[in-house]
Amino acid sequence: MGLARWAIQIILLWMFLASVALAVTNPADTAALRAVRVGWTSSNLNWNGDDPCGGWQGIGCDGQNVTSLDLGDFRLGGRLLPAIGDLVNLRTLILAFNPLITGLIPSELGRLSNLEFLGLNSNRLDGSIPPELGLLTNCTWFDLSENNLSGELPVSSGIAGVGLNNLTSAIHFHLNNNSFVGRVPEEISVLPNLIHFLVDSNSMSGEIPAALANLPSLEILRLDNNNFSGPFPNITRLSGTLHEIHIRNNSFTSFPDISSLSQLLFVSMGLNRFPPQALPSFSTLRNLQSLELDGSNLSGDPSALLLISTLETLSLASNNLNSTLDLGNTSPSLTSIDLANNRIPEVSRAPPSSSYSVTLGGNPACNTPNLPSYINCSSNALGNEAWRPRQNCSSTNRICPREEIFNEASCTCGIPYILRFQFNAPTFSAMTSDRNEALRSEIARGTGIFIDQVWVDNFVFTDNFRFNATVAFFPPVGVRELSDQVKTDILRRYVLHTIDLIGFDPYHVFPIDLGDVTIRNGNGGLSAGAIAGISIGAVLVVLLVAGYAIRQKFRADKAKQATNPFASWGGGGKDNGEAPVIKGVRSFSFADLKKATSNFSSSHEIGVGGYGKVYKGFLLTGEVVAIKRAQAGSMQGAHEFKTEIELLSRLHHKNLVELVGFCFEHGEQMLVYEYMAGGSIHDHLMDQSKVFSWNKRLEIAIGSARGLSYLHELANPPIIHRDIKSSNILLDEMFVAKVADLGLSKVSMADEGKTHVSTQVKGTLGYLDPEYYMTNQLTDKSDVYSFGVVLLELLTARPPIENGKYVVREVRTALARGGLEEVIPLLDSSLEGYSARDLKRYLSLAMACVEEAAAQRPSMNDIVKELESLLGSSGGFRGSSIGGGEFHAISLYDDDSVALSSAGAFEYSGGYHISSKVEPK
Ligand SMILES: *[C@@H]1O[C@H](CO)[C@@H](O)[C@H](O)[C@H]1NC(C)=O
Ligand SMILES: *[C@@H]1O[C@H](CO)[C@@H](O)[C@H](O)[C@H]1NC(C)=O
Ligand SMILES: *[C@@H]1O[C@H](CO)[C@@H](O)[C@H](O)[C@H]1NC(C)=O
Ligand SMILES: *[C@@H]1O[C@H](CO)[C@@H](O)[C@H](O)[C@H]1NC(C)=O
Ligand SMILES: *[C@@H]1O[C@H](CO)[C@@H](O)[C@H](O)[C@H]1NC(C)=O
Ligand SMILES: *[C@@H]1O[C@H](CO)[C@@H](O)[C@H](O)[C@H]1NC(C)=O
Ligand SMILES: *[C@@H]1O[C@H](CO)[C@@H](O)[C@H](O)[C@H]1NC(C)=O
Predict the structure, then answer these.
(1) Which of 84, 92, 491, 795 keeps 20 to 30 A from 400, CA to CA?
(2) Cα gap 271→254, rounded to integer Å
(3) Rounded CA gap, 360 and 314, in Å?
(4) CATH number, domain 405-511, options 3.30.565, 3.90.1150, 3.30.70, 1.10.3480
(5) Which burial class, exposed, middle or buried, applies to 656 when counting CB atoms under 10 A from its CB (0-12, 13-18, 19+)?
(6) Measured from the CB, is residue 205 less than 6 Å from ligand 4?
(7) Which residues are marked as active site?
(8) Which of 914 and 140 is assigned the larger pLDDT?
(9) Where is the signal peptide, in residue numbers (predicted)?
(10) In this predicted structure, what is the pLDDT of residue 580?
(11) Cβ atoms within 10 Å of 397's Cβ, excluding its own
């Protein structure tokens, strides 16, 4: 071991000396780099001096020649100039993830005949693909995905021409998420090595050429989200290789015959124009893990499909399935079955284990009373919530020294190197512990480290069947941090895809920090610890040396500044009291949050309230968060702040906005919450261009009711929110409603035998429980009242108090006057898709919530049940339903009473007066 270390140091020293001796870069390459540089704007590209191979950022050399240019995720802007074609020695070109790079791809790029790896993905390039790129005959990785490229895919016509069909070394074609038009050219079906053909999310059309089935190596075919049409060709010849087929959301008119493709793991074919037919049993697909065939005009019985023993997720929503569902024999692998909006009359036998639920909203089966718990009568299968591995350390003390993070894999602390991965075509659509273990072990194997140095977390599936995850590479036990050299090597190997993660390819990797640091040349030697941890084997020594041999100079991320989840309380603050036991809530340094918000710049502001401002922040881990920063006058004492965090940290429910962490440093008090991309329902309802369907409104009501019901009935101790209103109900990107802003919450005393808490009245005008403000006695029924007002707001899309009219009184009067008829004019004119019967039930529920006597109001639990049953009976449908207009994040985390200032100032701090105009009577 000692010998190995000594040997490495000698080798590195020799390499360093060699590099000093050769420190004059090929002048033609130097000139070309300077010419390319002219096209770019960048605040942090540091290309100084005369010797690119001697330390310019992102440059890698072989001897004197520049062989790699990697400026991925470097905040470059500007254009790619034709001079790029003069870097004739380049083997690797990566300019990915610089969304400010615009303009055309120069045809001169085709002169880089040595190029093996082209990564121009995730920029904003436009124009069409120059046919000359077909000259890159040594290129294996060809990635132009996620740009704004248009035109047809160029192919050679005749002997003289050149096009994508000449890329005979290509293994990966990633052309997805652009604006390409035209057909899939028949000519590409000769490429012998192509395994991934991704053209999803473009505007391509026409029929798919039957010759595509001649691709001898094709494993993943993604044609989804285009305008392809016609009958789907016979692809039986792909039966030996094809793992994944995605043709969802096109206009194919015949159902592909996939029965002989026994290697298939993932089939996504929904939303086409298939003619009516009976659901096939797919019994020959013995490896199938995920099947998605919603909106496909299928009738018959899904029960046989459920026997495929590898099947994990099944979506057959919005078909015409009409037979009794038998769950008695289902595969043990199943995690989710979505059969919403079919015509299934009943379920005959229960599943052997109820580890999954069956979504049956919109089926007659949901109209039966006393449904068992494995039946979900909403019309949405579970949303895309992050999947998190179980923490496996019994140790209750997860508190680490400052800057270190608890490693759940080894149950020790260390500073990890963190990368964010996006997996572009996973063969599955549900995460499981086994799969997580497989991924960890692939990463450990590929990186050459022990499995307990790898922790993978935060798996999020995207709408189009990709998924993201965060990977932490920890130093070995007993070592604080990996050396920069090792980090560089890890990054290099993942960025260049020299590692196949078997079962998880292809992927993209994102360093979590922007690179403004250049790695020093490989002359520093490795720390003893890093070597010990990396591997004892010579294999790795070889890899490491190979890593340095080409003198890649990648930036390091500054893992030293990585977030510190479990730092002791008040590390830099004044309170030096004991660390609170706060599981899962992170202590952020002021510097972390400053960085996350570009120094609290106004461009990050997403809300203002009495408490202070709310910022959108980007953490080093890749997470997006909302940071609520208390302003000078509104800080609490250290003790109260701590108590609040302890309280909030205990609350976990999918319908509550989750507290991620806090900061208590530099005299600041900040709370860090998960970011809610969908904004508040208040903002939605007030925006005429965004229309919620009846079912969506019910789903939002159910989500928020569940969150509240959790606070009242399951949280320990029970909690009264005290400020329920439409601006405190936020939507995530999947439109799941979550209750926010528990800042005013009071611990309910019910568990101590009292039934109420006496307290100064707080809350928001229009939502206040009249009994509470008359008696100062707070009960959970005060939240029920406010929730009733929100229910009415969901119907009327108007603020509770408008022009002096109070919605509760308006509706009550209208009902008394003439029943339902009279209420209709008060409703949101864009509300559609409900029956009079449903409306009546909804209204009677809302009116029960706003009963003046608290005792007559239902409990949150009753409300949840009634709303669920309403949704079941109204035949919910899959998919969300925002009509009219682009949907984007808007101001959220609206705080306290400030939003009301336009409706009339209202002072809560004692001596308040409620004008008789608005007093609910
Ligand atoms: C460097 O590039 C030049 C052409 O620019 C070529 O002649 C030479 O062989 C290359 N050297 C190495 C070591 O590849
Ligand atoms: C392509 O790669 C092969 C070996 O992998 C090499 O022999 C050949 O010279 C390369 N072609 C070009 C044009 O660089
Ligand atoms: C994408 O390109 C089209 C023209 O092809 C242009 O109209 C559009 O503005 C571009 N979009 C972006 C986001 O640059
Ligand atoms: C491109 O491929 C086509 C078809 O194989 C061939 O006829 C043409 O000569 C190739 N072009 C070049 C420049 O090699
Ligand atoms: C599809 O192609 C396979 C072989 O390529 C052939 O055996 C089969 O008969 C074809 N199916 C149809 C319906 O033409
Ligand atoms: C289901 O629908 C098919 C086609 O509409 C029909 O032939 C069949 O009789 C129906 N089965 C049941 C059980 O209703
Ligand atoms: C996945 O990661 C990519 C890159 O960071 C990001 O653009 C995308 O929004 C992420 N998707 C989800 C659902 O988190």
Answers:
(1) 491
(2) 12
(3) 13
(4) 3.30.70
(5) buried
(6) no
(7) 723
(8) 140
(9) 1-23
(10) 36
(11) 11
Q: How far is CA 858 from CA 407, 716, 750, 841, in A?
A: 46, 21, 17, 14
Q: Is 101 helix (H, G, I), strand (E, B) or coil?
A: strand
How many whole angstroms from 69 Cα to the centroid of ligand 4? 28
558 annotated as ligand-binding: no
Query: Does 460 sit in the ligand 7 pocket, CB within 6 Å?
Result: yes
pLDDT value at 354 more than 80: no
Minimum mean pLDDT among 100-114, 282-296, 335-349, 529-543: which range?
529-543
Pocket test for ligand 1, best of 64, 65, 86 (most atoms within 8 A of CB): 65
Closest among 51, 79, 49, 53 to 68, alpha carbons compared:
53
814 pLDDT higher than 70:
yes
Question: Does the pLDDT value for residue 529 go beyond 50?
Answer: no
CATH number, domain 586-674: 3.30.200.20
> Residue 636: what pLDDT?
72
Return the HEC string of 377-431: CCCCCCCCCCECCCCCCCCCCCCCCCCCEEECCCCEEEECEEEEEEECCCCCCCC
pLDDT of residue 914: 28
Give yes or no for a contact between 171 and 193, defined as CB atoms under 8 angstroms apart.
yes
Mean pLDDT of 53-65: 86
- Rounded CA-CA distance 565/563 in Å is 6
Q: CA 344, 346, 351 angle in degrees (round to 5)? A: 105
Residue 300 carries which side chain, given as an amino acid letter?
Answer: G
In the sheet where 227-230 sits, what is the strand order?
205-206, 227-230, 251-252
At 884, the pLDDT band (50, 70, 90 cuts) reads very low
pLDDT digits (tens, 9 = 90+) for 196-233: 999 999 999 999 999 999 999 999 999 999 999 999 99
Positive or negative, the CA dihedral 471, 476, 481, 484 is: negative
What phi and psi values does residue 313 have, to the nearest 5 degrees? -130, 140
Give the distance (Å) from ligand 6 centre to CA of residue 321: 8
d(CA 555, CA 218): 35
Q: Is the pLDDT of residue 22 over 60?
A: no
Looking at the CA of residue 237, tell me the nearest atom of ligand 5: 5
d(CA 823, CA 816): 10
Ligand 6 neighbours, Cβ below 6 Å, are 299, 322-323
Residue 23's pLDDT band (boundaries 50, 70, 90)? low
**Nearest one of 873, 707, 702 to 791, comparing CA atoms:** 702
Distances in Å between the alpha carbon of 895 and those of 576, 597, 610?
A: 30, 19, 6
Tokens 């062989």 sit on residue: 67
Residues β-bridged to residue 457: 470
pTM of the model: 0.59
Q: How far apart are CA 800 and CA 821, in angstroms?
A: 21
Q: Closest ligand 4 atom, CA of 160? A: 9
What is the position in ligand 4's atom list of the atom closest to the CA of 187? Answer: 4
687-899 is classed CATH 3.30.70.20: no
Query: Are 73 and 515 contacting, i.e. CB atoms less than 8 angstroms apart?
Result: yes
- Would you say the CB of residue 236 lies under 6 angstroms from ligand 5? yes
* pLDDT tens, residue by residue, 243-280: 999 999 999 999 999 999 999 999 999 999 999 999 99
Every domain of the chain and the residues it spans: 405-511, 586-674, 687-899
Higher-confidence position of 816 and 788: 788
- Token pair, residue 88, equals 């004739």
Alpha helices per DSSP H over 514-666: 528-534, 538-549, 590-596, 638-649
**How far apart are alpha carbons 81 and 103 in whole angstroms?**
9
pLDDT of residue 96: 87
424 lines ligand 7 (CB under 6 A): no
Per the listing, tokens 């390091």 go with: 556
